[in-house]
Description:
The protein is mainly alpha-helical.
Amino acid sequence: MAGLNPSSSPSVPSSTSPAKHENPFKTSWTNRAIIAAIIGYLFYSFATLGLTFDRLVIGFGESERLLSRMFPPDFSRTNLLLSGLAESLQIAIISSFFGIVISLFLGLLAARNMMPSIVSTPIRGFIALCRSFHPVIIAILFVKAVGFGALAGILTLVFASIGFIAKLFAEAIEEISFKPVEAIKATGASFVSVILYAVMPQVFTRFIGFASYQLDSNLRNSTMVGIVGAGGLGGTLFSAFQRFDYDFVAAILITIIALILVGEFLSNIVRRIF
């Protein structure tokens, strides 16, 4: 452009000093001490628990002999296999149904945006109690209480389902938008109507996902709790191990895997539908 003096234009620095970046992996002496303590405790645990490489090598050798005795699987006792499978399936379905239904009510009562703290706090405590114990421990208690069989397994998995599903239900309800709730309340609708028309439409899809996952989990657990006498295919598996009937053990394990795969397939179908 005419009349423009190049010398009057703003000067551009010929070089810029490199920006200083802090080291993202910089650690303080406190962090180093914590890391050193963790590593030291790991070595201490290995030493006190007797975890040696020799035992690992011996275990691999024993595993090879065990697998050689498990194959080919023995499916000749079909009646025993199918009866245990049917009982496990029944335990899983019944416990999932009652566990999910109870969890719906408990999840609603535990939601802090829907209930006062005097209601939600003790319900949350009960849900945490249900989640505190492994299903096998719960199964042992129910076997002692009601005896061996499917009833103990059903009660165990209902208890375990509440601990997991009710917590997820409560958290899902707490994350809803409150605008539909206020709109329904403004019409003078009852509390049940608010739940049905303002809360449930927002969380229904997530509820279906939680429920299908719990059914899949109960299918696995129904075989596990049978080991302690709570019915199902787990009892048949435990008896086969006691008899050193390893080819029948392999048949049971393959059946359990097939059951879990079928459950996973059905869960995926349900999630696609909803």
